[in-house]
C-alpha cells in the first residue's frame, strides 16, 4: 500500500487512461493529426482521427482543424499509442449558430455549418458565406451565401436574396422578381392568366377587321 500521496499520484499517472489534447498538425489525405497532450503539452506522432469518420460503401470524412480540443483513448492499454475518439467544444470554439433560427442547435436537432473559423483563430466569427444544413422538428433547412431552402411540413420555400419562391398546397407563388421563360412554351390547362386588372381568358376584342386595343374585361 502506498501511504505517500506523491507515490500514489505517480502510480496513477503510469496507468493508461483517456487524456485531452489540442490538435497541432493535420494530414487530410490520411485523416491523421498530431496532438499536444495536456497538461504537459507533449507533441505526439501522427494519430488516426476517428472522431467523425465512416468507412465502407458510405464514407464520411471530417478532419479536425488545428487548435481543436480533442479526447484521446489509449490503444489496448498502451500509454504511447492513442486514437482520437471525440471532439470537444471549449471557450474558444463553441457551437455553431444556425442561419435559420439565429440560435445554436437545440436538443433533438442536428446542425452542420462551415465558415465558422478555425479554432486557433482569436476572435473568430461565423461567416454567412459557408454552406449549412439544419434538421429540426418543423422540417429541414439548408443554404449557402444568400441562398436558402426551407422544407416544412406542407411547403417548400426557396429564397435567393429578396426573391422568394414558395410551393405549397395552394400552388406556386413567386415574390420579389418576375418570371422569364426562354427556349420553351408556357401552357395553362384548366386555368387562367390574370394580372391585377385583367383576365386573359375573359377579355374580348373589337369587331372583325377592326383595330384591337388593350384587353377589356
TrEMBL record:
Gene3D superfamilies: Gp5 N-terminal domain
InterPro entries: Vgr_OB-fold_dom_sf
UniProt name for this protein: Phage-related baseplate assembly protein
Amino acid at each position: 500500500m502506498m501511504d505517500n500521496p506523491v507515490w500514489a499520484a505517480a502510480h496513477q499517472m503510469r496507468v493508461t487512461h483517456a487524456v485531452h489534447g489540442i490538435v497541432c498538425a493535420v494530414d487530410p489525405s490520411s485523416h491523421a493529426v498530431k496532438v499536444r497532450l495536456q497538461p504537459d503539452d507533449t507533441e505526439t506522432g501522427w494519430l488516426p482521427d476517428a472522431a467523425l469518420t465512416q468507412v465502407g460503401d458510405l464514407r464520411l470524412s471530417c478532419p479536425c482543424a488545428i487548435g481543436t480540443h480533442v479526447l484521446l483513448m489509449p490503444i489496448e492499454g498502451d500509454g504511447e499509442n492513442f486514437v482520437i475518439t471525440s471532439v470537444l467544444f471549449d471557450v474558444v470554439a463553441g457551437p455553431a449558430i444556425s442561419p435559420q433560427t439565429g440560435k445554436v442547435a437545440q436538443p433533438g436537432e442536428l446542425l452542420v455549418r462551415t465558415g465558422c473559423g478555425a479554432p486557433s483563430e482569436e476572435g473568430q466569427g461565423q461567416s454567412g458565406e459557408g454552406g449549412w444544413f439544419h434538421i429540426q422538428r418543423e422540417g429541414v433547412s439548408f443554404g449557402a451565401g444568400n441562398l436558402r431552402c426551407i422544407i416544412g411540413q406542407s411547403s417548400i420555400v426557396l429564397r435567393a436574396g429578396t426573391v422568394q419562391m414558395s410551393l405549397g398546397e395552394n400552388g406556386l407563388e413567386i415574390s420579389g422578381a418576375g418570371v422569364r421563360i426562354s427556349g420553351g412554351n408556357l401552357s395553362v390547362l384548366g386555368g387562367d392568366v390574370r394580372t391585377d386588372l385583367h383576365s386573359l381568358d375573359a377579355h374580348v376584342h373589337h369587331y372583325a377587321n377592326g383595330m384591337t386595343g388593350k384587353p377589356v374585361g
